[in-house]
Amino acid sequence: MSTITDLLSVDHRRCDEHFAEAETAVGRGDWARAAGELAAFRAALERHLSAEESVLFPALEAREPMAAGPTGVMREEHRHMRALLDELARAVAARDAESYLGASETLLVLMQQHNAKEEHVLYPMSDRVLGAEAVAPLERALADAQAHGDAATG
Length: 154
Hints:
CATH topology: Four Helix Bundle (Hemerythrin (Met), subunit A)
Mean pLDDT: 92
Oligomer: single chain
Number of helices: 5
């Protein structure tokens, strides 16, 4: 990937695929698959959020102090997403499709709005301020989290 926007936008799509698969499984009443896809989605989303919070946001804030406003909003939205993930996990454990689909709809709207802000504002700003220097550390953060997650589950 050549830009922060490219790297993290593609990662958004990866997360979205697991999210959609989990919702499809819930709709079919396939709770085992729903649990697996939700776990995959949660791991992918956590990798993504952690890479932003540990690498991108601090680098951007160090170089452009005015970025603390937008990154603060993004962090708060990340907290809300994590809380909704907990609701989804409880709904899967209870095999409660109605609760799952309600929380899922809320999360979908939040992610769509959040991703649009990142992809159209924050990531392009990051590309302008940080340039390609932040791409490799972000790639490493995503890969390190993936390896750590694989080791923890394997």
